[in-house]
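To: structure subgroup
Subject: Chain for Friday's discussion

All,

I'm putting the inputs and outputs inline so they're searchable in the archive.
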Amino acid sequence: MDSSLRPEDLLSREAELPSAPLIFHRLNELIANPAASGEDFAALVEQDPALTARLLRVVNSPFFGLRQKISSAVRAVNLLGLKELRDLVVATTVIDRFRGFNNTFVSMQGFWQHSLRCAVIAKALLPDSESGDAADSLFVCGLLHEIGHLLLYRQLPELMRQAVLELETSDQPLWQIERRLIGFDYAAVGAALLTQWDMPEGLIIPVGQHPQPDLAQSHQRACALVNLAARLATLDDLEDDKPLQLIPSSDPLWRAAGIQSGNLREVLLKARQRLESTAALLN
């Protein structure tokens, strides 16, 4: 493998690389504007009829259990809240933009199912009482934590096939195998993409550093939370003792994430309920 290859080189090779979801920045501007109203948010979302339809499907999903059908973006905003709306808008936009970004390793449906599980768990791990930019970004960080793999699968299929085969018999995680074979891992590619998209540091660093949260120069807790959520998202069943078998309470990751492992059952219950609504984003 050419040791001079950089993550940015993969981006420059990809002619079909989706452009940045600009609506993310516009929604953040509205959230930061105290004079902005729910009508302002609704007007922005309604500029994209397909996006509006997808969000209304989420709001009308069984999770919310509404007696009356919600048919307007304004009512959806009032029900979901502004930051929740932003998360769902970004999720919908990114998923749509990568919908035709096929590869031979994973189905896009399966990829986004896992990514949404990670996003929901990452957000559920943080207590509702905590707020701030880091907390507000966790859903999007979880959603995008593996997006670099889509580029690796397409650009370096033979090396990635070798990496996946090694994973079956190795005690190393995939990111370590990728670093040895390629010189960098999927997280670095994801961070390069988000940098190209001009995303904030609070997204770039957790996506790029979550495999090794302890080495992050900043946003260490967010990195640890994404790492924890990504590992929990691999479990098919979140209801039994498998989570603590996967990540024992003695694992320093819990402390780095600022989470008590004893609260995990409550956290995962919240995540399971939330997954019922976000599943509509994939349809």
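Points worth raising on Friday:
The domain at 103-283 is CATH 1.10.3210.10 (Hypothetical protein af1432).
The chain has two domains: 12-97, 103-283.

D.
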